[in-house]
What does this fold into?
Amino acid sequence: MTRSRLSLLAYLAGVLLCLTPIAGHGGVVDAKLPSGKMAGANFQAGKKGMPAVLVLHGFLQTRAFPTVAGIVDAASTAGYTTLAPTLTLGISQRNKSLPCEAIHMHTLDEDAAEVAFWVHWLVQKGHSRIILVGHSYGNVQLLAYMGRNPAPAVKQLLMISLTDVELKQNVQQRARLAQDLRDRLAKKDNALVVAKFGHCNKYASPPAALLTYLSVSRGSILGALAKAPVPVEVIMGSRDDRMEADWVEKLVARGIVVRVIPGASHFFDNQYEFDLQEAVLQALQDKRPER
It folds into this structure.
């Protein structure tokens, strides 16, 4: 184990011993969304005066996904208040990841609305400084929220393994699929479409719902990052196979701070879990001026 990993473990252990447990301030939170669906999140109160950290999972996953759970544990142990919701994706009290072949009725707008709900939940708890952390496609959903009148309490965006949405389907393929969906809607054809989307070879969805996700492109992500009203940082693994070779360079060219962890994959599994946690804690402590 490297010296940096040993230092991180010692630091986390020391912080853990100093923290005083707060009875009744942690565990699973269930809430009724404006849509009427029930949603859940893991909540852990931290030290007063420290920001709250909202951690969002990747596409079709849950808050229990190992990469996300590790980030939450590290931030909680360091004293941050943490909130890790599971997006319903149209299913009340969803607690399992969804297969690609499931029928997906959810939309990107609904995802963004749920992020807004949980940010508001933290604000109602008295948190005036909130940091949003996303993994994989969760970053796209966070950007969708940031483009829809985000709360002033949101002070920073930290994006882990920011997905390049045009890796598996290039711009021409995505344009053809989007046009097909629009043609179906014009004919009032709402039958399910089974198409390649993201990492899914067979993604089943109504045309209108899938079209909301196809509104996101490489260009729109880069544009949203450049216009973000808060500091943005991206953490990537050098062996992430869900991005083109020039993805990091394109991010840097837009003025985005990027940390690359050598050898790590999209999920920062195996020994790279501790490298990711160390990088996340460093990023959370950064004091960059707001844009």
